[in-house]
Design brief:
16 strands; 20 helices; globular; alpha/beta; 6-stranded mixed sheet; single chain
């Protein structure tokens, strides 16, 4: 059916070569290759062009270009070793992979040599066909974007958001489709759009971790934040080259040579001298990346920090408490998880930091969590959880929750809060009608406050694993400026989401 498009906007997106270029994964699939080196993530490298290695190594190396797929018979050990060596050299281009032909595999001594390379991420594939036939087939492999094409998707999303009025399109969709449903994809997309609207500078002190570098590339491609990486720029860029990723748009700060160091030492000394801190100890502390990054946030040289892929939670929180400190009226740092279910996003707190908060601390966690929910577009209806609902139960633990709920009601009278309340009565409207029929929170809760860490941590993991929910967090709250902690088992996607959340928190400061 024809539609009037007279007043409809038209958007033009520039052509980006990489989006129309196959990856090593696509070549592997189309040619039915055997993979003999590298992991699945290494197959995401883009193949910009292919090169047949027919010359001697010393001559062939002169023709290497970034993104080359080297096509060579499997018995050419010199080319194989030389091509792999070029990956670790700062003097040569970064290839995308090696494709061995003729069904020939390297001698066992050669395989032993390159399999012993420390964290070698270069994919090596093998096919039965001869070199000429293989090269012809490679040239015919089409470029596609699949759900596994993380790097291409990030690039395409960044290109789309930079050239399209997403707010206008979103409003058009909302005006035509009325729905309260928020899917995990919608929530995550909303994070990126909000972060992009007012880009912040987020410092990542753990630049030696591969996941951090891969997340950095995704964030830069999606153009949602400015990234500051701590460390020697040449070393970081060299490592990213071996991984086949591009982080050249990041900013690099080396604490060892930075002109900021002397200023930071003096500021930290002044902050802590009454606690017995000496200048020497201040200097030793600032030589730690987590302290230096935290000081960057405190002094306004960065807007937020994300750490924890390598460091412990205490390594992340301790500098923040000593330097950034908590907001007025808040005595503890707490955390929340955004639990992305099929049709809604819930807030769980505290599931990561405070082991056994007292009534006043529990009230602070509830109030801070409600504010965090509101920042991220979730209307807070707070359930103070316990093993009993209303007046039905007795005991110290129930009384703690009841007292905490009363404190919240007194300090934030406009906030919808219910407690003590059981989880089923908080989330299920049918149960709520039986247990608390007159409650404005029961059956409709969006913010769930657990009485202790044992209950909260086990519950969020149980919901996550049994329902397939996506758990984003922990998100730290209560600090004067945003600092967030990662799990040491975090995935690249977890880092990306946490950085976007940190940027949004910085927007609200």
């Amino acid at each position: 059916m024809a539609r009037n498009i007279k007043d409809s906007p038209v958007y033009l997106l520039e052509e980006v070569t990489e989006l129309d270029t196959p990856t090593v994964a696509e070549i592997k699939k189309n040619l039915d290759c055997i993979q003999i080196l590298g992991e699945e993530k290494d197959l995401r490298r883009v193949v910009r062009q292919s090169k047949i290695a027919a010359m001697k190594l010393e001559n062939f190396l002169e023709y290497l270009e970034d993104g080359d797929l080297i096509i060579v018979p499997g018995d050419r050990s010199d080319i194989i070793i030389g091509s792999l060596s070029s990956v670790f050299s700062k003097k040569y281009a970064t290839i995308s992979g090696i494709l061995l032909t003729g069904g020939l595999l390297p001698h066992k001594s050669i395989k032993r040599l390159f399999s012993g390379f420390d964290k070698c991420s270069m994919p090596i594939l093998s096919v039965e066909e001869d070199t000429y036939t293989t090269a012809m087939k490679v040239n015919k492999v089409p470029a596609t974007i699949t759900p596994q094409s993380d790097r291409k998707i990030a690039l395409a999303m960044g290109l789309f958001s930079s050239n399209v009025d997403t707010i206008y399109l979103g409003n058009k969709i909302v005006s035509e489709i009325k729905s309260d449903t928020i899917t995990p994809i919608m929530f995550e997309f909303g994070l990126f759009e909000r972060a992009r609207a007012n880009k912040k500078r987020i410092v990542l002190p753990e630049s030696g971790d591969e996941r951090i570098l891969r997340a950095t590339e995704t964030l830069l491609r999606r153009d949602v934040v400015e990234i500051i990486l701590l460390g020697e720029d040449k070393e970081i860029l060299a490592k990213s080259r071996t991984l086949g990723i591009d982080i050249s748009k990041a900013k690099f700060v080396n604490p060892k040579t930075s002109s900021l160091m002397d200023k930071y030492i003096k500021i930290f000394y002044e902050l802590r001298k009454k606690k017995g801190l000496t200048l020497d100890v201040a200097k030793q502390s600032l030589e730690l990346d987590s302290y230096f990054a935290t000081m960057m946030v405190h002094c306004g040289d960065a807007d937020g920090m994300v750490s924890g892929a390598i460091h412990t939670t205490q390594d992340t929180i301790r500098p923040a408490l000593q330097i950034i400190k908590t907001k007025p009226g808040i005595s503890i740092v707490s955390s929340v998880f955004f639990m992305c279910l099929d049709t809604k996003v819930l807030v769980y707190g505290d599931c990561a930091v405070n082991q056994d908060p007292n009534a006043d601390q529990l009230a602070q966690i509830a109030m801070t969590s409600s504010k965090t929910a509101k920042i991220f577009g979730i209307e807070p209806r707070v359930a103070m959880l316990s093993y009993s609902t209303g007046d039905s139960g007795k005991g110290d633990e129930v009384e703690k929750v009841r007292e905490a709920a009363n404190i919240v009601k007194e300090r934030m009278p406009d906030l919808l809060v219910e407690g003590p309340i059981q989880y089923d009565a908080a989330i299920d409207e049918k149960v709520a009608r039986t247990k608390l029929p007159n409650s404005k929170v029961a059956g409709k809760a969006t913010v769930f406050i657990f009485p202790d860490l044992n209950t909260g941590n086990n519950t969020y993991k149980a919901v996550q694993r049994s329902s397939g929910a996506i758990a984003i967090g922990p998100v730290l709250q209560g600090l004067n400026k945003p600092v967030n902690d990662l799990s040491r088992g975090c995935l690249v996607a977890d880092i990306v989401n946490t950085v976007a959340i940190t940027a949004i928190q910085a927007q609200g400061e």
